[in-house]
């Protein structure tokens, strides 16, 4: 079975939009309110203060320069509220800096309001999924999942997974012998939208395989299901 469906967003989300362009701010507010969300608008000068004081489900943050990334950095010290960055500075350095500081998605300007709406919905679906009560990884007599350190170990030997690699493997272990689609894994494990030419998930899978092999783990296999996604295969006992 292919797992691709995320929870439907049925409740109004509280969204803070930090945007200096009044025309764009008004346009995105109108679009998101038509979708049933409650939107608060502000400029960059008030963005951090409102983000800290308000109880928001999502923050849309425009990058105007290093100061905007500083706002994200300070916010991440206190809150895990999802942040979607919007920027006309569409270069690799800014994207990497944004994701490194904890952004959940990055949308280069100019963008269509329709695409913004789709990305907002995707993030809110991921958050809804994470808030659901989820099963622990299926019992494995050999592999130990350490949620605190975001790593797995075999007979005391740690694999040395990164946080992203751990989330990917942990999610696959919650759905043993079930194909998980790439869009699903991107949203739930990598915490951003899936792009057809983005190979980062493939690299994470490759690294996980290598690290599991290095500690001698052989009970389950990470398999590629071409055109669909990935699955953790555990033979029946």
Automatic annotation (TrEMBL):
Signal peptide: none annotated. This is Two-component system, OmpR family, response regulator PfeR. It comes from Halopseudomonas litoralis. CDD domains: trans_reg_C (cd00383). Its main location: cytoplasm. Pfam families: Response_reg, Trans_reg_C. Residues 14-124 form the Response regulatory domain. Residues 134-234 form the OmpR/PhoB-type domain. Residues 134-234 bind DNA. It is found in: Cytoplasm. Keywords: Cytoplasm, DNA-binding, Phosphoprotein, Transcription, Transcription regulation, Two-component regulatory system. GO terms for biological process: regulation of DNA-templated transcription. GO terms for cellular component: cytosol; protein-DNA complex. InterPro entries: CheY-like_superfamily, OmpR/PhoB-type_DNA-bd, Sig_transdc_resp-reg_C-effctor, Sig_transdc_resp-reg_receiver, WalR-like, WH-like_DNA-bd_sf. GO terms for molecular function: phosphorelay response regulator activity; transcription cis-regulatory region binding.
